[in-house]
Amino acid sequence: MFHALVSIKQVPDTTNIRIDPETNNLIRQGVPTILNPYDAHAVAAAVEWKRKLGGKVTIITMGPPAAVTSLRECIEMGADRAILISARQFAGADTWATSYVLAEVINEIHSKDPVSLVFFGKQAIDGDTAQVGPGVAVRMDLPVVSYAVKIREVNLEEHYVIIERKTESRNEVIKTSLPTALTCEKDIAEIPYASLPDLVYSLRYEPEVWNAESPITFDPAQLGLKGSPTTVFKTGTPEKHSAGEVFKVTEVGLDGVVKTALDKILAVEGMASMLGVQK
Amino acid sequence: MSRRFWVYIEQEDGKVHPVSWELLGVARRLADEVGDDSIVEGILVGYQMEEAAQECLHYGAETVYVVDDPAFKNYLNKPYTVALTALVKKYEPEVFLVGATTLGRDLAGAVATSVGTGLTADTTHLAMGVIKENTKKLLLATRPAFGGNVIATIVCRDHSPQMATVRPRVFNPAPRQAEAKGQIIHETFEITPDMINAEIVEFITNTAATVKLEYSDIIVSGGRGLGGAKGFELIKQLADELGGVVGSSRACVDAGWIKYDHQVGQTGKTVRPKLYIAAGISGAIQHKVGMQESDFILAINRDPHAPIFDVATMGIVGDLYEVIPALIKEIRARKEAQNG
Amino acid sequence: MDKNEKLVFDVIVVGAGLSGSAAAAIAARGGLKVAVIERGQNPGSKNYFGGALYTHSLMEIYPDFWDRKPPLERPVTETGFWFLSTDGLVKATVQGGKVNSNPIDAYVALRAKFDAWWAEQAQKEGAFIIPKTLVVDFIRENGKVVGVKTDRDQGDIYAPVVIITEGVNNLLTQKLGLAKHDLKGESSALAVKQLISLPAATINARFGLTDNDHGAALSVMGDVSMGLPGLGFLYTGVDCVSVGVGVTLEALREAGIKPYELLQRYMNHPMIAPLIAGGRLMEYGAHIIPEGGWSTMPQLYTDGVMVAGDAASMVNALHWEGTNMAIVAGKSAAETAIEAHQKKDFSAQSLSSYRARLDKRFIMKDLRQYRNLSHFLKTHPDFMAIYPTFLNDALGMFFTGFGKPKGQLYKDILKSLTSRRPLLKAVGDIVAFGRTIIGI
After folding, report:
1. To 10 degrees, the CA torsion angle through C117, C119, C125, C130?
2. pLDDT exceeding 90 applies to what percent of chain C?
3. Which one of 3.20.20.80, 3.40.50.10610, 3.40.50.620, 3.40.50.12780 gives the CATH number of domain B3-195?
């Protein structure tokens, strides 16, 4: 049976984040949290293949209790089961400690209900590390196909999958044996618009909650801040760049601003020869 | 024993990714910050790597470890991870830098897990420093987080190597020396079947010429202010006139007006051209972190309060559909005047 | 739960705005099974307003309102009018006294934050909120509304009574024939606003506020709207300022001015610009306000349906009231729905007690009294331009006329008025305005 597992993360909508101008602290209050956009597409792909092949989709996330909202969103898209992995001990985990927990969880699920594909988004928009997917794959000794843009074929009889992935210069088509991990670009699938019964079902859905002791007993030394090789030494705000002069077309006139702009551009070293125009 | 500063030399078909030279440059600086016993070394994995290995020496690597085998002809996560893990365990480098490219991020995440050490992703600033008195200097790896709103300096105290992926185009490349000093050491591996868990069945070269935003000297970018996909025709005209390439803000990519390859910013490309023109881009922090190091930034926006003006070398408050055609006309006029 | 089960509720509320969530809370508290259908990602994500909420209406829904830790910005401790000339300003504001009530009458709020919380309170009462879903039509049986159709697959939801709080763009209300036509340009205003982020201490200093527990809500008249009938406003949040201007759609269209230019010009006014200087734009938005009130009010109920809030033109433009009417009307609609369930009668006849409830309250009384306001502004297009400028001149002359014979001073002041408007006409304006607001 096809069993897709998708690991997702609830993230603050980074396009809405602000910095307190006085304290330089991140203002999290009032910043909406969302299902990480890449993860949403990964879920969509998993559901798409479930609809083609039959089977089921399981969602996992490590996060605070409020992350149920994102799990419900995955159920809305058509996932069948969602698990929230939540405990204080997990707080402050870096990608290494995160991949430890996720790998243990996926192994546990896999042992009861074998998994065909393990999906991740290519990265989370808050941390932007793109490390958790490959990290989990290594821990589970699964092949990993990162930056996947298309799943071409899933063959359950012959135990292989063919996935197209993106590199900087070209796309590669990769064949691996099942189970395989993949990290997804947005191209992997379109987000479906759920039917009303699916939406209503998802709004009432209560995910399973796993903690640090049950049903898996994790090694406390590998959890959270304590289990993280990397720590944040300090944080700050990006340095401010000084603003240059601003000209208004309504004041200087179109001709004036354009001439000034070009004069300034040509004054940049090497620019005149590149454009083939004299200063 | 020498303190080793390692750089992963990324290559595709024998062609070295320029970020590797940038990393050799920054590794040299970091090595100098800790003292004389530190050395900069390159790690090269692939097939038929002689020329690339030689180039590494020209760019200042004191040693290049080369794994050269047909099994490594094309990048695949598992065999490369196995090879690098073995090398790390054998030589115990102190710092290991990898380019934050798609390949580098895929590889570094796997290697760090496999070695059992910490990894800081997508760094934009690196230094060696002491975080507690009477301890050895650590790699202070700084990176933007939360969409560029915050910068965080991350350390890896008790694990080694201290690994980081480094964003391309942030550091200057090491200067290429005419003379190639240093040694090339070949490492051999027994390729076992369990190392091969994937195969590449096809390459698809994008027929639509892929944009090389990161290494372009002139970029003209459009934003939401274009009002629609059609607006990029005008952006393209100006880019063509200047001999540059087309960039975009995330909003336009999300709206489907232009492909992701053109996206500049936190989740797109970091660029550092000589000239960056931002037309109709309001200048969200996510965009600014990807272009603010450009030599000259010209911003065109109707809103005088657009945050893009905070980083612009020169700002024009006006309608881009008036300003850009006028700019194109002026460039043409000057070219004609020059050509007689 | 079975996914194929038919979705049946006791009452459906369309739109999780102030009115909708109030209706949902009251209905749920009354024991009804309530579904709220909201088109936005979250309640509040599509909602917009100037400013301030009125305490009396919030407490009417939740007597323990303050214990629920509402996400409000600042209390309004100073409020009133600012009159702008091209380069001057006369302030007529009040603070202390009646404004210093307990609790304070009005609070500045940000809708995205507040409405999400407001909906959450309704949820706590037992209402079921269905977001990201658009109601596109009604389900009718024997000509009576028995539910709604949404834009989703298998998107039908049933309930014997539907409360429409769909907002100003009242397509559903029109679909039922309750509103005869789209809103008229003369009776709807377009408000454009920017939310500017500034440190709290800067806001306190610039607006003369003692601390973060003091706030200002100001209506700005005169040289704000490029000579068009409209009003500017300023509201202080904790660390942000709402600055905006509203003008009737018709006037905007006739003058060919873009809303954006209007706001830009207002924000660049020499008396306004320093208040927001150095701030960062947090959001920019525009919203239509159904200022027609009485004159554009649709029929408020029919078989199985009631309409409340902006969808029913419940706005008093002069007093900036709308949110409180929406909330109280939502409550009245819910009470009517509860009563209808008790009687098991959802006919128009049965739901007419909704109208009766509103008639007893300030809502219908005020809207009726102010029914001629938009007509007055249409027939006195320069009313908002002339008098604020005159006021600036008059007070300016009065307080600077040192060393001049005072007889001449009064003549000059009078001339400043009569040069703009003949005296008789000015008296006529004032009388007409007075009649308009008294409602005779």
Report:
1. -140
2. 55
3. 3.40.50.620
